[in-house]
Amino acid sequence: MKPGNLVRITRASIGVPLDSLGLIIEKRGARGSRDRIQLYVVRLVGGKGKAGRVRRYLARDLRRV
């Protein structure tokens, strides 16, 4: 996955239900990680009140659309 990809959130969290849509805006490496864990900064789209909210997710919590 890379910035510009549309993704579906596969893990529900407070304020972000399962299967929400988002757009990857940045890819980051986790600090101090020896396993090279990738974090993705995602801007949520659609829905009531959550559009435009920016959240960070691990690759395992996202599925490319």
List the helices and strands and how they pair.
Elements: E1 6-9, E2 21-29, E3 38-45, E4 54-58, E5 62-64
Antiparallel strand pairs: 1-2, 1-5, 2-3, 3-4
Quickly give the structural class. mainly beta
Helical proportion, percent range: under 10%
In total, the number of strands is 5
Total of helices:
0
| Secondary-structure element order, N to C | EEEEE
Strand order of the largest sheet: 4-3-2-1-5
Radius of gyration: 11 Å
Please indicate the count of domains: 1
Distance between the termini: 10 Å
Mean pLDDT: 87
Which ranges are low-confidence, i.e. pLDDT below 50, for 5 or more consecutive residues?
Answer: none
Biggest sheet layout? 5 strands, antiparallel
Residue fraction in strands: 35-45%
Q: For this entry, what is the oligomeric state of its chains?
A: single chain
